[in-house]
Amino acid sequence: MSRCGSLVDYIVSIGEVVWDIFPNGQVLGGAPLNVAYHLSCLGLAVRTVSRIGDDDLGRSTREQIAKLGLSTVALQQDDRLPTGQVQVTVGTDNEPHFDIVAPAAWDNIAVEPLADLSAGRFSMVFGTLGQRDCRSRQTIRSLWPRADYLFYDVNLRPPFTTRELVAESMAAADMVKVNNDELLTLGRWFDIVQTDKIAIAKELASNYNLETVVVTEGGAGAWLLSDQEIFTVPGEPVSVADTVGAGDAFFATLIAGFLRKMPWDECLRMANKRGAYVASQNGATPPMN
Q: Do residues 252 and 35 make contact, with C-beta atoms less than 8 angstroms apart?
């Protein structure tokens, strides 16, 4: 379905909320929460939809989300499953590596508490990992037809993010974000004979009726394909602290610019700058001006 960008009443960011456990401490994270935080900092109304356990980490989650200035009204609590955790190690290339604990409370996001989402217009941000369990997957997909616009961050986390989940999600989405490696992986998964990155993006857009394909390339910048036109932005010089959450900050900023009908060049410039800043900080949700 073709939809034009416009401001909506709010944005639903749905999926995993987890504690990233580093060797020297733990930090609240998860792509949906990171995106929600940056959308909120950019002045957009957001509802973070996830599920936490009835445990110490769950209580800390509520406290930390409130400190980030986000509402916890759509944060569900599970009586049996624990709050999500991810064991994170950072390699010599400064890229994070994730060991995602399963099962977790965010695997059981229920649709019933979300009935009030029928009031007002909303767009929706979702990923692949949040759909690893059929319960949350059904809830996420029940909201697809009701959203004005669907923003999908592929965000591959093997073994939970399968080819089938990605294909079904792209078929529903309007805008898809991948990093450079993920784009090449999708090309192999879906038997795209082209090896040129732009050609792969064009074939994905054609096969899945995507309005926009966004590709991040770390220090090399980012580019996107929209209506067969390519827009690019070079990398920002930055001293990297860690890259956790940089892509989420980028995506949130791009979404905000799109919904405000800003030109693509300006959207990319702002998104790349914010992503680079987050990469220069410790953690995915640093204080923002």
A: yes
User: pTM to 2 decimals?
Assistant: 0.94
Beta pairing partners, 14: 49
Determine how β-strand 175-179 pairs with β-strand 212-216. Answer: parallel
262 has a pLDDT exceeding 60: yes
Which amino acid is located at 150 in the chain? L
Alpha carbon distance 67, 81 (integer Å): 24
- pLDDT exceeds 70 at position 226: yes
3-state secondary structure 33-62: HHHHHHHHHCCCCEEEEEEEECCHHHHHHH
Q: Determine if residue 245 is left, alpha or beta; phi over 0 gives left, psi from -120 to 50 gives alpha, anything else beta.
A: left
**Which has more pLDDT, 215 or 86?**
215
CATH of 10-279, one of 3.90.650.10, 3.40.50.300, 3.40.50.720, 3.40.1190.20: 3.40.1190.20
More confident: 24 or 191: 191
CA separation, residue 217 to residues 112, 181, 194, 247, 251 (Å): 39, 9, 19, 10, 13
Which DSSP state fits 178?
E
Side chain identity at residue 58, one-letter code = G
**What's the whole-number mean pLDDT along residues 142-152?**
96
Domain coordinates of the chain in residue numbers? 10-279
Q: Identity (one letter) of the amino acid at 213?
A: V
Share of the chain above pLDDT 70, in %: 97
Q: Is the link from the previous residue into 159 a cis peptide, with omega within 30 of 0?
A: yes
Distance CA 193, CA 67 (A): 48
Mean pLDDT of the chain: 93
In the three-class reduction of DSSP (H, G, I as helix; E, B as strand; rest coil), residue 100 is classed as strand
